[in-house]
Write a structure and sequence with these properties.
heterodimer; A: MetI-like fold; 10 helices; B: 270 residues; mainly alpha; 12 helices
Chain lengths: 269, 270
């Protein structure tokens, strides 16, 4: 098999994967704005008088509260990831001993454990944390933190950063100055990437949330579950489109950061 | 931080404390509830295996996850290499589109499966118009549909992980092997595969754990094919059988952790 044939096959597979991923999304987004009864997706008659956009206002009226709660939760998770994850990343980037190894293992451990398991554990350990949504936020943070810390650690171990910092220290810069003038600007793309990952994970999280949320703390993915099981296709499609409207820009930005980082640091980023 | 040398241990403290409180304590609580069962810890765990229903649900999940992870790796290997090495138009766009399902929980994937392959989904409707037969109708609710739905959310995980692995490969080794006269297959077998092996094992472990623990897609789609996460959820919420649900959750976590450990060993020993 020649190089050309192999490349052509790889290209065909790549196109196939993209089509498989994109086709259902296109159907859903189109289905949220136009009459899809031709495709057999709408069982009840499509109201002639209702404009397509009315499905969105219907969803917002019904589930706007869930949408706002999920957005708020994602912001809390990003803030939490910064508050506790940034110091950890700084520590992990500069030390390699038993302690940092233990923290690394513990950080990644939840990723190998199903969210439902951790959710039940959180519920049993902190029954009082359910009503306020504290365990919900903790569960989200648990799954977002490893990705944030990984991105931040990579950014903070970038070539030259430690030396620059040391040079600034030797020149008399205070810890605050070094942090503001050197660490933060150089690590910014990595930190932004980590924050976007944390946001996306929290925004789409369902495994932990469905169990930990009470009827008054249900997240938007839980509302999606409700629309899938109780509402008609256009409503479910409109709700899913709203979900995508927040997730897609975050992922787009993430890809752009990754691309520009690659251009700057080579393939290591 | 100390002026020279490594920063103080305090930097790690907030994260370590959080992980202790939000992960270690809950896992201990889980074990504790199972241990507090009237039947005793080990009997409760053994029950999961001896009861036909739960054992089948566990094995269903293990087999489905293994099949999905293997399929995802096979399908994504060549595209990942292309994304890592190739310079072509649409590279960033295709990477973005492929990464979209990363943000989806299983329920959305389940909904998409119904839209495409439900009883009146897009594919059966198109097929009816084109071929006169609704091929794929109702497939979403059967095992093939579940398999495709799981594959859908494993594609980005496999593609991105493998692309990163291809990006780190030392191209000069391959070039050297080529200069020495190695054929394409020989280079792949002797140079690329050994270098890629740890990433393959790691990707398999990640996708396997995600599939095994996934719960939304099966909750929406599965009619007769039971998987453990859905059983745990029902046991915990509908029957309030805490100890039973904990025992199943321990099995699920145990199998997941075991596969991760085996993959890590495989990666280390080649």
């Amino acid at each position: 098999m020649g190089d050309r044939t192999a490349r052509a096959l790889a290209a065909v597979l790549l196109v196939l994967l993209v089509v498989v991923v994109v086709a259902p999304l296109v159907v859903v987004v189109i289905g949220s704005v136009i009459d899809t009864s031709v495709l057999g997706l709408t069982s009840e008659s499509w109201q002639q008088d209702a404009s397509a956009w009315s499905w969105f206002s219907y969803v917002l009226e019904l589930y706007g509260e869930h949408l706002a709660r999920s957005a708020w939760l994602a912001i809390v998770v990003v803030a939490g990831a910064f508050l506790i994850g940034f110091p950890a990343a700084y520590g992990l980037a500069r030390r390699s001993d038993g302690w940092s190894a233990a923290v690394r293992v513990l950080l990644d451990a939840p990723l190998a454990i199903p969210g439902l398991t951790v959710g039940i554990g959180l519920l049993l350990a902190y029954p009082w944390g359910r009503a306020s949504g504290a365990t919900l936020a903790a569960g989200h943070l648990l799954y977002a933190l490893p990705f944030f810390v990984r991105a931040a650690t990579n950014a903070l171990s970038a070539a030259g950063l430690a030396e620059l910092e040391e040079a600034a220290a030797a020149a008399g810069a205070s810890a605050t100055q070094r942090f503001q003038r050197i660490v933060l600007p150089l690590a910014r793309p990595g930190l932004l990437a980590g924050a976007l990952m944390a946001f996306t994970i929290s925004w789409g999280e369902f495994n932990v949330s469905f169990l930990l949320a009470t009827p008054t703390t249900q997240t938007f993915p839980a509302a999606l579950y409700l629309t899938y099981t109780t509402n008609s296709f256009p409503v479910a499609a409109a709700a899913t489109t709203l979900f995508l409207a927040a997730a897609t820009p975050a992922l787009l930005l993430l890809q752009q950061i990754a691309a520009s980082e690659t251009a700057r640091f080579g393939e290591a980023a | 931080m100390s002026r020279h040398g490594s920063p103080s241990l305090w930097w790690l403290a907030p994260t370590a404390l959080f992980l202790l409180a939000a992960f270690v304590v809950p896992v201990v609580a889980l074990l504790d509830i199972a241990a507090g069962s009237a039947q005793g810890f080990w009997t409760e765990l053994a029950l999961v295996w001896t009861r036909d229903h739960t054992r089948r649900a566990l094995m269903n999940g293990v087999l489905l996850s293994a099949a999905v992870s293997s399929a995802a790796m096979l399908l994504c290997l060549a595209p990942a290499q292309l994304l890592a090495r190739g310079r072509f138009r649409g590279r960033t766009l295709s990477r973005l589109l492929l990464s979209l399902p990363l943000a989806f929980s299983g329920i959305i994937v389940g909904f998409l499966a119904i839209v495409m392959l439900g009883r009146v989904g897009v594919i059966p409707t198109l097929s009816l118009a084109l071929f006169g037969r609704p091929y794929g109708s109702g497939m979403a609710y059967a095992l093939p549909g579940l398999f495709l739905a799981y594959l859908f959310f494993e594609i980005p995980r496999a593609v991105l992980a493998l692309e990163a692995a291809f990006g780190k490969l030392d191209l000069e080794l391959d070039a050297a092997a080529r200069t020495l006269g190695a054929r394409r297959w020989q280079r792949w077998r002797r140079v690329t595969l050994p270098a890629l092996w740890p990433a393959l094992a790691g990707t398999f472990a990640t996708t396997f754990a995600v599939s095994l623990g996934s719960f939304g897609a099966a909750l929406i789609l599965s009619r007769r094919f039971f998987v453990l996460p859905v059983e745990i959820f029902t046991e915990f919420t509908a029957f309030s059988n805490d100890a039973g649900a904990c025992a199943m959750a321990i099995w699920l976590a145990g199998v997941s952790a075991l596969v991760s450990l085996l993959a890590a060993r495989a990666a280390a020993h080649g």
